[in-house]
Amino acid sequence: WLNYPNNPTGAVADLDFFQRVVDLARRYEIAVCHDAAYTEVAFDGYQPPSFMQAEGAKEVGVEFHSLSKGYNMTGWRIGMVVGNATMVDALSRVKSNLDSGIPQAIQYAAVEALTGPQDSIKEQNARYQRRRDLVIDRLLSMGLSVTPPKGGLYIWARVPQGYTSVEFTDDLLEQVGVVVTPGVGYGGNGEGYVRLSLTIPDASLVKGLSRLAEWRDRKAGLGKSKSYLT
Fold first, then answer.
1. For residue 73, which of 81, 184, 213, 228 sits 20 to 30 Å off, Cα-Cα?
2. Could you say which architecture CATH assigns to the domain 119-219?
3. Nearest partner of 165 among 140, 142, 187, judged by Cα
4. Using CA atoms, how far apart are residues 97 and 46, in angstroms rounded to an integer?
5. Which runs of E-coded beta strand occur in 26-68?
6. Nearest to residue 178, comparing CAs of 227, 127, 221, 128?
């Protein structure tokens, strides 16, 4: 199972990587599933490639896509899958026995989203990129190690020295009322990191960043001591 741009890390994959995945899958008879839900959300002119662009991809796997990110249809539970015909047929059989299908109104809305003007995606990505740059600038000013993601809705940042991901998450919440997600919640390899979201409104994001600065100043002995939790 692959996911690029990745949640939670923001990592991206190039076409050469996907080609190597296809070669590996052929060699060991592995079925590949690529979750491409974040491919509409990209920054700095980057265009995420499709797994299906790799030669032979349809022989070994499928690619899932969702309208929840680029088209803001979160919770509407509509998407699509393309690729290996046998895998798609098997998925269709399983899905048809799990529920009675997507309501027609939602399907019509999805058609309009896909076939109508796409200006909103560009505008939305510009908004997310602006937020990304704000968050990256603040995290770097705090001395945290972070790489600006090329796509996706999240920032993956290393926690300060001396903290676990849960300890840092708890401290931010208790001291300044800022919520981040501990990386260990995504598996053991996520320890030492936290995930921040770019989906909150600008005003809330600016407030949160100001509180991060307050947390930094407190740790440096420059700020007042006060808990946001009562």
1. 184
2. Alpha-Beta Complex (3.90)
3. 187
4. 39
5. 32-35, 61-66
6. 227
Interval 208-225: pLDDT, tens: 999 999 999 998 885 544
| pLDDT score at 230 | 34
Q: What are the structure tokens assigned to 7, written together?
A: 């949640």
Which residues in the chain come in under a pLDDT of 50? 224-230
Q: Which residues touch 129 (CB under 8 Å, ≥6 apart)?
A: 43, 44
- Render the burial of 39-59: b for 16+ CB within 10 Å, e for the rest: bbbbbeeeebbbbeebeebbe
Residues in the chain: 230
Query: Do the bridges between strand 154-158 and strand 193-197 make them parallel or antiparallel, or are there none, so unpaired?
Result: antiparallel
The strand pairing partners of 157, in sequence order, are 146, 194
Whether the model clears a pTM of 0.70, i.e. scores above it, the answer is yes
CATH topology for 2-115? Answer: Aspartate Aminotransferase; domain 2 (3.40.640)
131-156 per-residue burial string, b: 16 or more CB within 10 A, e: under 16 = bbeebbebbeebebebebbbbbbbbb
Ranges of each domain in the chain = 2-115, 119-219
- The DSSP 8-state label assigned to residue 190 in this structure reads G
User: Which pLDDT does position 143 carry in this prediction?
Assistant: 86
